[in-house]
Amino acid sequence: MSKVRAKKHLGQHFLKDPNIAQQTSDAFGQDHLFDFCLEIGPGMGILTEALSKRTDLDTHVIDIDAESIQFLSTNNILPDDKIIEGDFLQLDLAKLTNGKPLGIIGNFPYNISTQILFKIYENRELVKEMVGMFQKEVAERVVSPPGSKVYGITSVLLQAFYEVEYLFTIDEHEFDPPPKVKSAVIRLKRNNVQDLGVDPKLFKKIVKAAFNQRRKTLRNALKPYLNEVPDLAQEEIFNLRAEQLSVEDFVGICRKLSN
Question: Of 128, 121, 80, 136, nearest to 105 (Cα)?
């Protein structure tokens, strides 16, 4: 199996343009929010090379594909002790970084990009910044404001703890093999919110429940939670749909449910 085919099977598309790789690298770590840099899915190392030239970054990479790991090692793109063969989704980030603040970057495989975002959310106290290349619609969802049709679960969860920014769009022909959709690079920077003032597990459950039935009003989407507090269900906010609520609105609902 060729490397391109192997990567395509894993949902990866290789970036070809070193200028885009440089632009992505330049957008990362300028505020020195972290001490440990981790690139996910380096593939043929075009972004890794740009990162490796930066003396201000302690760059490590992780890839589940043994061929890519061998390529990076053979071509001395990074020292072997900076190259990790493994699954990012199974990685203990606190153990890897020894508790150091972490920055994450990469051209993320489309088929696990949302899972990567959820893992960043779960490790929000550790992950201080992320610059990532995503399928354009995934990128737009993360940065979209309330009221947008693409505003969703990742929008609310990540915007609660990160400043989000859409950086630039990348055309299909810049990748090998070319995907069928455009890609985009976004940046997350940790904000100053340490605690929402509500149970974080309840917050995540409420956000997911609301958007899993996004065509319904909150009164119907959150019915299992509101059955125990029927008076609360009469409030006007429950006439709205999930996409109409801000992060603060969701926090307010959780606070009322907790009380």
Answer: 128
67 and 142, same domain (yes or no): yes
CATH number of domain containing 133 = 3.40.50.150
Let me know whether 48 and 81 are in one domain: yes
Q: Is the domain of 254 the same as that of 136?
A: no
Cα(93)–Cα(81) distance, integer angstroms: 16
Residue 195 lies in a domain: no
In a domain? residue 215: yes
Which segments of the chain does DSSP mark as H helices, in order?
3-9, 18-26, 46-52, 66-74, 93-97, 113-122, 136-143, 153-161, 200-212, 218-221, 223-226, 247-258
**Tens-of-pLDDT digits for all 259 residues of the chain?**
234 333 444 557 889 999 999 999 999 999 999 999 999 999 999 999 999 999 999 999 999 999 999 999 999 999 999 999 999 999 999 999 999 999 999 999 989 999 999 999 999 999 999 999 999 999 999 999 999 999 999 999 999 999 999 999 999 999 989 999 999 999 999 999 999 999 999 999 999 999 999 999 999 999 999 998 889 999 999 999 999 999 999 999 999 998 8
Three-state SS for 158?
helix
Q: Which residues of 116-149 are buried (b: 16+ CB within 10 A; e: fewer)?
A: bbbbbbebbebbbbbbbbbbbebbbbbbbebeee
Expressed as residue numbers, the domain containing 156 is 3-190
Among positive and negative, which fits the CA dihedral 39, 44, 47, 51? positive
